[in-house]
Design brief:
mainly alpha, 1 helix, rod-shaped
Length: 20
């Protein structure tokens, strides 16, 4: 289930990068 945590972190970073 560690993958889910990584995905959540990646999703958040993706949103921040897009907002940039």
């Amino acid at each position: 289930m560690a993958v889910q945590a990584s995905y959540c972190s990646w999703k958040r970073a993706s949103q921040i990068n897009r907002g940039r």
